Each structure stands twice: as structure tokens, then as C-alpha cells.
Amino acid sequence: MIMKNVVFGICCLGLLCGCAQHTALLGPAYTLGTSGNIYQAGLTYGSNHAITSLTGKSTGENIKEILRVKQKDSDFQKLVKKRIEETRKKLNLSNQ
Q1: 62, 39, 67: which is closest to 50 by C-alpha?
Q2: Domain that holds residue 82
Q3: Do 38 and 72 fall within a single domain?
Q4: Long-range contacts of 56-62 (CB under 8 A, 24+ apart)
Q5: Quick one: DSSP state of residue 94?
Q6: What does pTM read for this prediction?
Q7: Do 52 and 74 belong to one domain?
Q8: Distance between CA atoms of 26 and 29, rounded to whole angstroms?
């Protein structure tokens, strides 16, 4: 039974790996379906598309780059980034 689930999961993963580039539309579609607010869904999709076209990176990649500690960061910026990472670790532990 377990082996059958593992094989099924691997097959699904192989078939669906090409769908990753279309997930940017999933968030606005969910917003439209749950709230019915077409303006908010359009704004979300448009802003994601604009950020990706301007920077060449997704929104998540841009946030990771901003939060990465750099040599030229001030002490305050390093402290804030360190606290954000610690808080994320604590939240992940409490969710398990």
C-alpha cells in the first residue's frame, strides 16, 4: 500500500513539474473565487507580473535577496534580519 502511494506520488510529481510557471495565477484566482473581488485579484496578478518583468525574479526571490545579510548592512539591519529569522524558526517549531 505504501509503495503504491510512493509510486503514484512520483508519477504525479513528474507529470506536474511543468506547471510551476503557471502558479502565479493561482493566488489571484483563489482570491477571485473566495471574495469575488475582481479588482483585488487583477491588482495582485498585475503587480506580480510587473515585478517579475522588471527584476527578472519572482516576488519570493526578491524577498529572499532583501533579507540576506550583506557586508554593507548597518548593525540595525543585521539585528532586524536576525530577529526575523529567529521568529520564523520559532513559528515553524510551534506549527509542528
Answers
A1: 62
A2: 67-96
A3: no
A4: 58/24
A5: H
A6: 0.41
A7: no
A8: 5
